[in-house]
Amino acid sequence: MKSSIDDAFNPLEFCDLCFQRGMPNLCETYKNTFTKISPIHFSQQAKLDRLLNTLQVIPRMVNRRWTCTMDTTRKEFLDSLWGIGVSVHTLDDHLKVLTRLYKPEIRRLAEPEIVDLPNQDSWEEFDPKTRAWSQVNVINKNKKFTAKVRLGNILKCSGMEGTSYYRTNKNDDSITLIPMEKRAARNIMCAIAEPTIVHWRPDKMEKFAFIDVTELDNIPDEIFSFLQRLGKKDKRVANSLVFESEDLDLVRDTLSCIKINLEKSSETVNIESFAKSGTSITINNIASERLQVMLDIVKEMGGMISSQEDHLIISGKRGSVKIIFVDDDKSMQDGNMMQISISALEDSPRLSEVLSMIRKKLGLLDVSLDALLAQRWPILNDTDLQYVVQTAISWYSSNPILAGKIISENNKLDKIKAWYTKIKEGKIRSSLDTITLGKIIKRLESN
């Protein structure tokens, strides 16, 4: 079992059973985040782009895949997908597959037997009652190693060469150890494990539910992966999976199929005030290209900015707000103070949300944030380039002039043309609609 939440894991790793009848166009890789995993017809893509424009959602490239993130518009987005013929595999759909795969049944183990072991390394046997490992007493007699373990159970051997898993099996009169992969071993452990209880702790407002990952010891990788996709991390509460309270039923259904009952703890999680969470970052230590995008758009919306060493003051018709930047995962607002995650300046959808918060708070002009962001967004890496190009392509059918501005303003055109030339020469490949990109470039060159 992972002792901490893994930052780099493939959310599609365990969707092989989900896609046996064909790949959908989109998959909900994380809650409210949808990734394109199979091609979408050009006409359907155009409808999808218009839908996202209506919802004010800006798609981006994540690990070279087209991705968009919803918030309160998730239900409207999903309902609209059926109307334009775009198929989607949601987390709810994935849970249905999991509940068919895992059944809350208990497979009883046979009686203990003497089994030969290949070495005298550290051996442990899975305990179905506690769902933990118990040390095996290895007997060394005449350089022959044996132990008494229950037939059908999983053994774990830890030595200089790493950790290996085995299942005890009886074939006729002989008892053997069958090597197993860790994933398969955990699935069997899940089948022989007895029912248990895991507790979740609410925060004071009961908006979130926290589950300590140590309480999820030795559960199948498929189950843990799903919980990671549904939940999120919070640096202020170490080694915990954090779920929105509205998702507790999904968590409960997920754990129940592996005989784990979810119960509310009498304890609460005391999350520090957001103003104290994360390390404050001075204005001079923020990448100027990223910060300038935010400042330019605030001014475009009619906001006035006063810069201090460690914060900004932004004023509008409805007053002012103090902005501090922190090394944290979240951006939050509390009265007239706003904490902005430094990482939000590098993520266009998150920065759009921040700017929307500022606009509503101060009563600034209602402008098209996605268009302004794309026009001003600097190309500092490949992800930036993919985002700018994809946004321009999505606007081309409805507003070709704006599409041209998106790729030409802020000294972006030369980089995009060089990238496009490499695609035409076959040096690199792209999943984007480069035909439309070529039309945008040609239109700019003809003007």
Largest sheet: 6 strands, mixed
Q: What is the 3D form?
A: elongated
Task: Estimate the mean pLDDT confidence.
Answer: 86
Total number of strands: 23
Tell me the span between the first and last alpha carbons: 60 Å
Number of helices: 13
Question: Using only CA atoms, what is the Rg?
Answer: 27 Å
Short summary:
The protein is α+β, with helices and mostly antiparallel strands. It has helices spanning 42-55, 74-84, 91-101, 182-192, 221-230, 248-256, 288-300, 348-362, 369-376, 382-396, 400-408, 413-424, 434-446, and strands at 26-30, 33-36, 60-62, 65-69, 88-89, 112-117, 122-127, 132-135, 139-141, 144-150, 154-159, 162-171, 174-180, 196-202, 208-212, 240-244, 260-264, 279-281, 304-307, 312-316, 319-327, 332-334, 337-341.
Please give a structural write-up.
Among the domains are: 26-86, no CATH class; 112-192, no CATH class; 275-367; 376-446, no CATH class. Helix 11 (400-408) crosses helix 13 (434-446). By secondary structure, the protein is of the alpha+beta class. The strands form five sheets. Strands 18, 19, 20, 21, 22 and 23 form a six-stranded mixed beta sheet that branches. It has 13 helices and 23 strands. The protein has helices at 42-55, 74-84, 91-101, 182-192, 221-230, 248-256, 288-300, 348-362, 369-376, 382-396, 400-408, 413-424, 434-446; strands at residues 26-30, 33-36, 60-62, 65-69, 88-89, 112-117, 122-127, 132-135, 139-141, 144-150, 154-159, 162-171, 174-180, 196-202, 208-212, 240-244, 260-264, 279-281, 304-307, 312-316, 319-327, 332-334, 337-341. The chain is elongated and about 85 Å long. Strand 12 (162-171) and strand 13 (174-180) form a beta hairpin. The protein is 34% helix and 27% strand.
